[in-house]
Design the sequence.
């Protein structure tokens, strides 16, 4: 009886490790994650869980644009997801060589389509980022500036919906094929926000700003290893 109860309990959760990579135009990412999922459904098909993910981003000559939602959309809150950017409010900084490292708590959702095929979605929720200080070039048609400045990765990351987000946040939509009970391969689509904060508010119009963001959209591939 105790053995059957223990077996039923094991069916209520799963955990795995995964390593994922993506390559885009003059940029790329590498990520490693630990995922712990609960199975709320009776058929053990649905997964809901948490994870811990480390994401490294690499970019060459990339443009990071004005980040705060109150500038890009003219307001804050969930509604900014549906509002087009106000182009005249957006400036950018060009970074010749950028490399950031983020450690975030992630939210994970998945569904076992068959015994072999699995569909999943995950998104970073909160964490921190570190990386080297860089010397970007400020680019603005309305307020050009030759003032020297530096920038470093925005330290605190938080999922707040679209341009309300802060810092470096990674998300994945993927399919996984289970080669056996332990090893799987995954492929899908990645969306990543990477952000820098300048040491001075280099943007002045329509108001002072020191946060600039790059949005990465790329295909991903990875390998998973199920722990239980």
Sequence:
């Amino acid at each position: 009886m105790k053995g059957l109860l223990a077996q039923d309990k094991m069916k209520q959760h799963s955990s795995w490790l995964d390593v994922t990579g993506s390559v885009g135009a003059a940029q790329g990412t590498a990520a490693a994650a630990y995922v712990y999922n609960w199975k709320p459904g009776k058929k053990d098909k649905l997964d809901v869980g948490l994870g811990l993910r480390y994401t490294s981003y690499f970019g060459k000559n990339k443009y990071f644009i004005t980040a705060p939602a109150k500038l890009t959309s003219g307001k804050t809150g969930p509604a900014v997801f549906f509002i087009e950017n106000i182009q005249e409010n957006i400036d950018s900084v060009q970074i010749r060589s950028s490399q950031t490292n983020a450690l975030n708590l992630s939210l994970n959702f998945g569904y076992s389509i068959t015994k072999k095929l699995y569909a999943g979605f995950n998104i970073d929720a909160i964490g921190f980022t570190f990386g080297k200080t860089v010397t970007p070039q400020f680019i603005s048609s309305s307020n050009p500036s030759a003032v020297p400045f530096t920038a470093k990765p925005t330290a605190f990351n938080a999922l707040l919906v679209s341009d309300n987000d802060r810092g470096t946040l990674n998300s994945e939509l993927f399919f996984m094929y289970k080669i056996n009970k332990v090893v799987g391969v995954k492929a899908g689509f990645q969306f990543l926000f990477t952000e820098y904060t300048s040491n001075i508010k280099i943007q002045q119009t329509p108001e002072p700003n020191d946060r600039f963001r790059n949005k990465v959209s790329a295909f991903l591939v990875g390998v998973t290893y199920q722990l239980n």
About this structure: Residues 1-10 have pLDDT under 50 and may be disordered. The chain has one domain: 16-226. Residues 16-226 form one domain.
